[in-house]
Fold this protein.
Amino acid sequence: PKLCATYDYCAEHGIDAYGGGQFELGPGRGQAQYLASLFHPQTPNDLAPAGFNRDDPADGLPASPLPPAPDATGFRWLG
């Protein structure tokens, strides 16, 4: 409930949310990507797919904003 209340507050007050931080690795990164794609895909974040973190990113990486791609149930587990 508190997470949704935060997003509601931001929407009501015209506040753009930011997604990211220092520790979104493994399953936490996938969950943060889902939240960013659903609630604030148009705002800055540092949650790009790991391929974008390379010094020379490979060709063919998806363009922004990334559409949500949920698994059949729950949050995906990266790893």
